[in-house]
Each structure stands twice: as C-alpha cells, then as structure tokens.
C-alpha cells in the first residue's frame, strides 16, 4: 500500500522496508522462478495429453500403408480323400493360388482417406496446444493475483498494527478508547484469515498449473513476471479472418469434410468390378491297369475371377451418408465460428470494463489517501475520527485489491482472445 508522507506515521515506512527485506530474503531461498514463456515451452514438451495426441497422430499415419496394399493372395491345398479317377489316372493333391485386384485408383483412394484422417489428428494436436497454453496462462495469472493479494494484505497488516499501536498510545494517554484498539485487532484477525484462505487457493492453482506442465502437483511455482494493464493490439476483422482460415478446430472440420468427399469417391470405386487371377495345380497318379498316352499327367488350370457389384442400394446409401455428414460438419463449423466470435466480443467487453474500473479505482485511491492523511493528523492530535480513519484504511485495501483484479481481468481478456489465434 503506497501511503504518502504523513506526520507520526514514520513507523509505517519502517514496516514497509522491513516487509520488503523479509520478502526478498524469503524468495531468494525459494526455487528459481520461471517466466511464463518458459512454462509454456515446458508444457508443450511435457504435457501428457499432448504426448498422447502426438502418438495417436503417428499411429494414424501408419494406416496409409496398410490400406494401400493389394489384398493378400490366397493359397490353398486340397487332398482327395476319395480320389477322382480320370482317363490319365487318379487325382491325389490339388494346389491353388489367386490374387484379387481392385478397380484402378481404389488403393490410392484408400491411402488418401487415411492421410486425410491423420491430418485431422494433427489439427487436434494444434487445438489442444492452444487450450493447453490457455490453461497455463490462466493458472499463472491466478497465481500472480494470489501472490499480489498476499503482499497487499501483508503490507496492510503492518499498517493496521501501526494503527493499533497508535490507538493503544492514545488510550493510555486518556485521549482514546479501548474500543478503537479492539476494532483494529478485529480487522487484523480478518486480514490474517484472508491470508490463510489465499494460501489454500494458491495450492489449488499451483496443482492446476503443474498438471498442465506434466509434473507433480506439489512442485513449487514462483511467479516472476510483473503485469501492468494489458493492451489489445488486435483488429476484430483480422481476428475473424485469422480464425476462419487458421483455427485448428475449424480446419479439422474442413478436413473431415474432405475425408467424407474422398469416402464418396472410394464408394464409387468400390461399386466397380474387381478382378482376380489364379492358378490351380492338381497332382495326378499313374494308372496301373492301363498305360494310356500321357499316363499320370498333372492338371494345370489358369483362372480369371471377377466380383460383380449388383446390389447397388448399399452404395447409394453410403453416398447419401457421406453427403449428410458433410452438411452436418458445415453446420458445426459455422456454429463454432459464431461461438468463437461471441467469445471474442465478450473478451473485448471484459477488457473495456477492466480499463474503466482501473481509472475509477486509481482516482478513488488518490482521494482516499488524501483524506487518510488529514484524518491521521486529526487522530494523532485529538484522538478524533478513528472510526472514519479505520473505514478509509479498509477502503484503501479494497481499492488496491480492486486494481489488482482489474489488471488481471484485462490480461484474462487478452488471453481469451489469444486462445483462438494461430500465428497472429
């Protein structure tokens, strides 16, 4: 709390200096802090959800060589339990082999679909990374707000203790009331309780941040960045264009539509005939009761096979299915884009609200501080106006907290907008 000079409050200056030194010593013994940009890099490297999606993407890429190969050839072996007699001898063993060939372009179409589906997985990685960065920034900002709140409260505890000492002195001199001391002590207990509540909230925010960073929840996080009120440098029209063309969720829907169109192409190819070639080889035993020409000659049977897709309803239904899927994805894409723009509008409104509140609270602090300086002199000299002095000191604490909240709110609005942007 930044008080201007006032008579008989030299103790507060000493307390502020002592608090600064003790905090400096405390933080010097803590883990070396990391700025937000470093934590974002750690999250990108260590987050388990992101790692899982990357492995799923690599797995999806392995689908292409699986579906772009010819069907496995078929090999058969048959033994004649009751040999069929022929003019040249009994048939003993039959060997067979065949290979099917789909319509030209079918294998490439299957590969294209697999690669398109892999591209969807890649865009999902990018979308998850945006959300991950959003979580890290928000958690980091929450920790910053909690740390700053504790510093504000700790500083004001020192000031209220100084006020308590002054009230005790006035009471002992007969110019004050013990009620003034009790009211000050009541306020000190309230502030001390707030510190405990904030300390508990810090552990929650820290656990959230550590989870995003892929490390244990109890790892200490020291916030090193300082935040002034944020500045928005975005142009709404450019934002809309950037989101429409680059946001990974919208791109993912477009790729899914592309996959559906490729499925329709494949469906057309599947409706074409497929061909196969084969060869049967039959071992024939020699006759013992006669000796005809070519006695015991084996049999060789070349074969050509063809599948004829006569049942067309399934191909028609599949084409209709994919067309409906394309339409549904287009609706989802349009709805998501509207949600994104609505989120940006809300972020702009929140930002304007934060800036307006900052201006108001700064004016209120300036006026309140001036009144406090006057009342402190009055109370020191005559013991009057203690209730008003206590109320204004409390108001000053609230204004400082409000300025902190408004500053954080301006950054949250900026983070909300950045959540939708790729390489803006």
- Summed up, the helix count is 10
Q: Segments where pLDDT lies below 50 for 5+ residues? A: 1-32
Helix-strand pattern: HHHHEEEHHHHEEHH
What is the straight-line distance between the termini? 38 Å
Major β-sheet profile: 5 strands, antiparallel
Helix content class: 55-70%
Mean pLDDT: 85
Q: Which properties best describe this structure?
A:
424 residues, alpha+beta, five-stranded antiparallel beta sheet, 10 helices, 5 strands, 68% helix, elongated, disordered N terminus
How are the SSEs placed, and which strands pair?
Blueprint: H1 10-28, H2 36-46, H3 48-61, H4 63-67, E1 74-79, E2 85-86, E3 89-101, H5 106-172, H6 178-213, H7 236-246, H8 248-270, E4 274-284, E5 299-307, H9 313-382, H10 386-418
Antiparallel strand pairs: 1-3, 2-3, 3-4, 4-5
Helix pairs in contact: 1-5, 2-5, 3-5, 5-6, 5-8, 5-10, 7-9, 8-9, 9-10
Task: Write a brief caption for the model.
By secondary structure, the protein is an alpha+beta fold. The chain is 68% helix and 10% strand.
Explained architecture:
With 424 residues, this protein is α+β, with helices and mostly antiparallel strands. 68% of the residues lie in helices and 10% in strands. It contains 10 helices and 5 strands; from the N terminus they run H-H-H-H-E-E-E-H-H-H-H-E-E-H-H. Strands 1, 2, 3, 4 and 5 form a 5-stranded antiparallel sheet that branches. Helix 9 (313-382) packs antiparallel against helix 10. The relative contact order is 0.14. Mean pLDDT is 85; it is low at 1-32.
